[in-house]
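Appendix C: a fully annotated inverse folding record. The material below is reproduced so that readers can follow the format used throughout the book. The structure is listed first as tokens, followed by the designed sequence.
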């Protein structure tokens, strides 16, 4: 439990800092920060999952980085909030692009991460 909490705290802090950094680069006309964070977090979680599947990492590493860090670094709730905000501001095309890109690119990133290892 402690490892998950430590990883989660680190993941949340990294997400916050990465969001600010990516937002400065991309602007705020589209939720790129959350999209990029979720894609990179999905890739990392895929890699860690691959390592876990083949028993190449100890349980504490999985708990700290897979469950804790990646769980807090990636954020489905922010994704959902931003998608709804796009709909509420009548930016339906952007909302559909965001939802579709998030679902496809995060799944592909997770798959790629696993297959980097396996």
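Designed amino acids, in order:
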């Amino acid at each position: 439990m402690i490892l998950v909490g430590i990883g989660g705290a680190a993941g949340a802090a990294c997400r916050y800092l990465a969001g600010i950094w990516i937002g400065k680069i991309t602007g705020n006309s589209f939720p790129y920060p959350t999209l990029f964070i979720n894609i990179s977090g999905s890739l990392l979680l895929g890699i860690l999952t691959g390592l876990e599947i083949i028993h190449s990492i100890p349980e504490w590493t999985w708990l700290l980085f897979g469950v804790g860090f990646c769980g807090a670094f990636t954020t489905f709730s922010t994704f959902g909030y931003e998608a709804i905000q796009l709909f509420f501001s009548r930016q339906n095309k952007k909302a559909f692009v965001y939802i579709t890109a998030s679902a496809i690119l995060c799944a592909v990133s997770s798959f790629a991460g696993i297959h980097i290892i396996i």
